[in-house]
Amino acid sequence: MEVQAYGKLNLTLDVQGKRPDGYHNMQMLMQSITLADVLRLEKRGDAELRVQTSLSFLPTGERNLAAAAAICFWKALGQARQGLNISIEKHIPVCAGMAGGSSDAAAVLRALNAQEREPFTPLELARLGEQVGSDVPYCVLGGTALAEGRGEILTPLSPLPKCWAVVCKPEFSVSTPELFARIDHVRLRCRPDTRGALEALRAGDLHGVARRMYNVFEDALPHRQQLRVAQIKNALIQCGALGASMSGTGPTAFGLFDAISPAQEAAERLRDFSREVFLVQTIM
């Protein structure tokens, strides 16, 4: 089987405090985009599980979330581990706040579920994904959704009106555990207006959503990285973006556009900032 694993953007991201279990309560407005990894799954004649990726530094064993998802699926189905080759052609930037690994895991869950004639509903499959990673449940369902708790409490929403996004990952990566550790000790400049963004979504108001985008993790970045993300966001706004923000724990920054022409111009300009620039559409 060949399946697409779509990336995501955080239109809003708020951290609402640390929980007794060590995780943080989150509130995030999530959106799928057309930038996607391509996964190919092929049965083997033995019981070995192998993962191969187009990036040599990614794990190939059970530490790869795609393999962990397969093991989790078989366990939930009450089956013994099966022989499987998983080949991943990476397009979503790595360590970029776009859920590339989680999306790969979700794609494996969907593919195996289809192969077994759908023993799990989409919601059951999303709950199964909780065991693999916090972003996996959302990546199973995709579209536009509000994610709360660790990210596993999902509320499907009215689709974001059709638009384009210019996505730019700067030349550095960010450690998610380090940023979560920092967020508890920094003074946040502001928080996203998630309620206002939800009202704008219900009204089909793309401009209203874009104006309310914000990610509190921007305030937790080290100073030089914070300046770089701000520089990219400013460039996007100058090119006509309706709004700009950072996705996940970063460092990817993106802007939303209601027309293709300014989005194309923004993508060309941002290639002066990074080699990893993508012009994509949102997925309804």
> What is the count of β-strands?
11
Main sheet specs: 7 strands, mixed
Question: Which structural category fits the helices and strands?
Answer: alpha+beta
In terms of per-residue confidence, which ranges show pLDDT below 50 for 5 or more consecutive residues? none
End-to-end distance: 24 Å
Strand content: 25-35%
Shape: globular
Description:
- By secondary structure, the chain is an alpha+beta fold.
- Helix content is 33%, strand content 29%.
- It is built from nine helices and eleven strands.
- The strands form two sheets. Strands 1, 2, 3, 4, 5, 6 and 8 form a seven-stranded mixed beta sheet that branches. A four-stranded antiparallel beta sheet has the order 9-10-7-11.
- Helix 1 packs parallel to helix 2.
- The radius of gyration is 19 Å and the shape is globular.
List the helices and strands and how they pair.
Blueprint: E1 2-18, E2 24-43, E3 49-53, H1 65-77, E4 84-89, H2 100-115, H3 122-129, H4 136-141, E5 144-149, E6 153-156, E7 164-169, H5 176-183, H6 194-202, H7 206-211, E8 214-215, H8 223-238, E9 243-246, E10 253-257, H9 260-270, E11 276-281
List keywords for this structure.
alpha+beta, four-stranded antiparallel β-sheet
Task: Quickly describe the structure.
With about 280 residues, the chain is α+β, with helices and mostly antiparallel strands. It has helices at about 65-75, 100-115, 120-130, 135-140, 175-185, 195-200, 205-210, 225-240, 260-270; strands at about 1-20, 25-45, 50-55, 85-90, 145-150, 155, 165-170, 215, 245, 255, 275-280.
